[in-house]
Design brief:
The protein has 158 residues and is an alpha/beta fold. It is 47% helix and 23% strand. It has a 5-stranded mixed beta sheet.
């Protein structure tokens, strides 16, 4: 089972692909989808193009995203929601099952503590996936944590 985790954003979208085989998980690919500071419609088109390429290259069987929780900057929240909408359109057009998890759910699944620090999450992502180094930047480690969460919590076939 190939799972794609997404940490949504407008400037940077972290992605992490893992393969779950029984109770084992292994990394496949991870990185960033980046957009330059250009007009919003053009940024959204770039996100769509890069997301379509990623989905086409890896053919994930499930996609999980982080649930958006914004309390301070509502303008940023709206732009991130628009970017996430583009991702979900790409996923929906391919008929890929989708799920979302809140940050505390991800922390609880990966670390065992819903109030874990970013560093604790990054440490566990690195260990669980057998990586030599912590994935950087944070968006990438978060995306892998989201994919791991879905692999650990969902009732996906092995």
């Amino acid at each position: 089972m190939i799972i794609l985790g997404i940490d949504p954003g407008l400037e940077r979208i972290g992605y992490g692909l893992i393969r779950r085989i029984g109770s084992r998980v292994e990394p496949i690919d991870y990185g960033l989808i980046k957009t330059p500071p250009i007009a919003l419609p053009d940024r959204l088109l770039l996100i769509r193009e890069q997301m379509e390429a990623l989905l086409g290259q890896h053919s994930p069987e499930a996609v999980a995203t982080e649930r958006l929780l914004f309390t301070v900057n509502k303008t940023t929240a709206m732009d991130v929601a628009k970017a996430l909408g583009v991702v979900l359109v790409c996923v929906g057009a391919r008929g890929i099952p989708w799920c979302e998890y809140s940050p505390p759910e991800v922390k609880l699944s990966v670390v065992g503590n819903g109030s874990a620090t970013k560093q604790q999450v990054q440490f566990m992502v690195t260990k669980l996936l057998g990586l030599r180094e912590t994935p950087k930047p944070d968006d990438v480690a978060d995306a892998l944590a989201i994919a791991l969460t879905h692999g650990l919590r969902s009732r996906l076939p092995v």
